[in-house]
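#structure-requests
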Amino acid sequence: MPRMLVPLGFIGLWATLITCISEFVYELVVSEILLTVLGFVVGLGISFRTSSAYERYVDGRKFWAQLSQTSRDLARHIWIHVDERHEADAQLGKADLLGKVTALNLILAFAVALKHRLRFEPYAQYEDLEQLVAHLSTFAGDAFDPESSELKPKTKWKRGGEYLGLTFAESNPRKAIKRSKKNLGHLPLEILTYLSSYVNAIVKSEQLHGGVQEAMVMANLASLNEVLAGTERVLNTPLPIAYSIAISQITWVY
């Protein structure tokens, strides 16, 4: 509702001005056919914008559901089908168990890192992510700089502009990425690389028996990569600027 105050106020003042001119200065008449045609065009533009937005929403929900399903499948395969060599060596068995727990944590870390990347939060030092990837060597972790990543307090004018939905007052969500002086890397992809290395290690040590289980684990890793590519496609493919300008202009003229 606050975002509608400025447009509604402008339209109200404009309608009052036109009414006063028409009543007291010069009678303004608009053809009904023009209103009908323009209304039809506005309806088409808004319909296209709504359908595009809903399609992006559906794609996002589909990829996130795929991420949830794939993560559960991969975690189950690792926990059940990867052997722990306790009989051969107690220390080796403990190491295998620790490796499985670490792999499950990496699956969770992939989902959390993907969430932050889609929000243009490029670092690894977030409250829900740091404890999951602190033991990894990543570009995002090495690039963290408390001074450059610290957010400056917003002025009351900026807060008011964002509350009213004024475009010029909105902050650039990519600000943290542009401020970084180091290579930020690609944290979800780096986590996926560590998971692939773990799978490669358990295959070489013959802890994962059978070609079926191995194929399913590899398919799950490929599915996670597909989710990563799909969500980035949804994020980085906005509505063409020409359509946005045309729809906005037609709506204001109407």
